[in-house]
Amino acid sequence: MAVLDPVKLIIDNFEPGLTEALSSENGPDETMGKREIPFC
Question: Alpha-carbon Rg of the chain, whole angstroms?
Fold first, then answer.
C-alpha cells in the first residue's frame, strides 16, 4: 500500500516542544496489542 497523492497538512496552533501520545492498535484484532505513537 502506498500514498500516491499526499495531502500537505500544516498545524499552526501546536505549541513547540509539546508532545502528545496517540494510541494505535498493532493489528486487525486486539490480541496483537496496542502501542503509543509520539506526536511532536
Answer: 14
- Expressed as residue numbers, the domain containing 24 is 6-40
Residues in contact with 40: Cβ distance below 8 Å, sequence separation at least 6, in sequence order:
18, 19, 20
pLDDT tens per residue across span 10-38: 988 888 889 999 999 988 888 899 999 99
Cβ atoms < 10 Å from Cβ of 23: 8
| 35 occurs within a structural domain | yes
CA atoms within 13 A on the CB side of 6: 5
How far is C-alpha 4 from the geometric centre of its chain's CA atoms?
19
Predicted structure pTM score: 0.51
